[in-house]
């Protein structure tokens, strides 16, 4: 294709609304255009990239026995009522009413739709296991769309669903899919992926993993270990503090007028936050009942862990209750009506400062085991940089930011049971199949690769997903000798099946190269009066790792071979 | 793929909710599953067919310089407010409010979205012409979804949009696209397509064509000529009646008690409907003002023509107005407050029976030219079987049913102007580009092919879009010699790049062949103890036009060659 025909403009200025690199570069490069909050249109270069990503995903899904199907974007709410998620999922599920007054939803995920599709289609155990997948548009009414294609409301997703006659078979297939995801990451050129255990959230099920690209622009906090290969999403990572040092100083009430925060308390008493015990208040969504978590003052409550412990939705408490001395709560003598929980960071500690449950007073010398109401300890804390690794026991926990590219879930029978899917086993007994699901966001994968692979001038697309394999830059194509050589090379490369973007515009080298940088095509071929004078073309990689001259007459073969060699580097081992 | 792994069941019973053949056969064959009114999921065979159709469409769009892009399914209503269609389009446009309270719509067509995408992307005349297209999900909240995939609410569509600096250039490109559509029809194996002039409806613009498959299941009425190649959609087809015979009998009031319909009147007076003049009442949607059309009693009013004449939306009048003698209206002495229009079928006629504008009375001997209020005549009538062809003048108009597979529109500047898209011409003057748009419904195309190409036992898919090219039926695969031969042939065909569905189930020949009929794979290869005994396999076409034995060792080459030969038949000339 000639660049003069490519619809889209490229520019230098950083758009005001863009915060992260992939959003900036893909806007500046004419890949995407924002249509509304979290909604984008794709120009041809982005569409070409997503098509290549989709082709790789398809191959890997087909290779593990997947069958591509198509489920609806808009579907009757009745399906989501069957599974119970119509009520349990928050307003990210877009609900609307059609012209006939029927309740509808826009698919944000398709467990319900896929069970509807297959529940009568596999009546016998002989049909199992099977996996169906689709690549389809989804809509998730995110409150805070941000970061270009990283967190959007409308997106293209590959979602796969497998069905099994046993948990063991699900686990066997889950492992297959895990490996397929690793191959997808390798083949699409994502440089640094970690796979972390994650919370299954609204999806249900127990075991879940996320494929994470480490990137500062990520929204997820990933827990890694500096000493071993442990990794987990912050949401589920166990928090283990260093060995506590017990301090048996006696409990003593102290006056702390107007000192409501841990920071104020530490400043007043010249102590560090880990020498305090603080209260964090929540409320249960359904009953509005208060929940109070006592935790070491330097730690934060991990809401996911708390939610999973309580088995219900909670939110931070902002309402005030008369019987609570806000800012002065402590476990000793706490009598307000609330569910009281203790984080295990407090276990074995002593000599802490904590609230005395009356305005303007704290205790010092508090020891939870000695002075507390005698409670069980549970893990409710967010882990932290330098915490103890749950795997190797070293104090080597590291926190990194990551972008979730894919996720895989062992769903169990949550959907198949609620939606009455059954098959007959060998003995003619009706059984409920076990289910797994496996997602990858196509647009987010594209943006993530850009996040991970760019320089100040533009994206550096890995060859397997690049919008074109080669960008042919003809400088001074008004000179007949340049134009003739460039045209011939262009035609030859096309004939050889190489994907070429040809720039024969009458623009300066500066404009031509800055456009080429923004388009991020991995291989660049430059023809100019100077190179033609030497009988060669210049062949360079976008990442600057390679630069060589090729004799004009041999350039097509040279370039084609190079494309092939670079592609081969992305083959999974 | 082995058929035992294919998700989906096939059955004999005609589902109660299915009226037309494609719906019946594609439900019975495990292609589609109804999710809700006008919403379907696709099983793997249907998904494979649509992917092949999409690949053909892509090739043809790329061949005429198209660039594939991606526009959103859900978009801000503000775009549709810019173009004015948020108000002008009826409730087929699904409107909803997102969690932030913003008005949104689901795209039923994407003129607004595409102008939003490209309006800043082609600032100079040098970028023109260009065409962008997408293959994307659309939602149209049809009041009456019916006929399986023929009239649905959610569907996959290829929609293309071209932009030009002149009407002439649009016309040149329109012609290119017209030819591309013809090639798409040929290549996807649609047997009988007529291209008809059509109304541009809510799309705007003047010239529009529809690509119609002639089929009894179709919802559109197509006007053809038995003598020449004239064709048009009923909506726009000119109605020319035979030469009128003037009858100068005098106007005379007659008593017709309780005779409100043309049928009753004809029975009472022993005349035929063409000897009457009837009144058809409408109301303007906006002003509620009544509109009355006088027309020859045997003809019907074509609402599209009336709408286009009035340049506003109308609906049949169901309200009653005091000053109108319903059932007894006629042009002579009609004084009620209404816009009065005359269809040209009345021109030059005499001796008609028509209402006398008072309860229980008609006139006979009415002659519009002599006794009417002196009006202009316009063409408001639906044409009819045996009417005069507007092209050749013969009384040879034929009416057929058709399914609209694709449509192309010369939109003009309706969207580019209202949405402020401009470019600078050679002289630096800002101008508004001229636009065309070009749609094809992918799922409807699939169902239409099934409508046109099936027998009592199932679809007969044309080779280029068949879910598989070859179905390999191994009868008695429990016999080692059969299984060995079939497995070898299967492996060889796969290696040769032939798409094979392999049936090695332990089922009867009856079940195996009726499944194969439902799956409609164009080429069938049968291996059984009998054929192996003769050292051959049987090779048959699904349409029964071909049946031959091939020597087992040569069968792979034989089949591969046959597939290639059959594919070649669908190459455009």
Throw out a few tags for this protein.
homodimer; 573 residues; alpha+beta; BirA Bifunctional Protein, domain 2; YbaK protein; Rossmann fold; nine-stranded mixed sheet; 31 strands; globular
What does this structure look like?
The structure is a homodimer of 573-residue chains. Chain A is α+β, with helices and mostly antiparallel strands. Chain A folds into three domains: 11-221 and 399-451, BirA Bifunctional Protein, domain 2 (2-Layer Sandwich), CATH 3.30.930.10; 252-378, YbaK protein (Alpha-Beta Complex), CATH 3.90.960.10; 468-568, Rossmann fold (3-Layer(aba) Sandwich). Helices cover 26% and strands 29% of the residues of chain A. Chain A has 15 helices and 31 strands. In chain A, strands 3, 7, 8, 9, 10, 11, 12, 21 and 24 form a nine-stranded mixed beta sheet that branches. In chain A, strands 13, 14, 15, 16, 17, 18, 19 and 20 form an eight-stranded mixed beta sheet that branches. In chain A, strand 11 (220-225) and strand 12 (231-233) form a beta hairpin. In chain A, helix 1 (21-28) crosses helix 11, helix 2 (44-63) packs antiparallel against helix 6 and helix 12 packs across helix 15 (555-568). The model of chain A has no long low-confidence stretch (mean pLDDT 93). At the A-B interface, strand 1, strand 2, helix 2, strand 4 and helix 5 of A face strand 1, strand 2, helix 2, strand 4 and helix 5 of B.
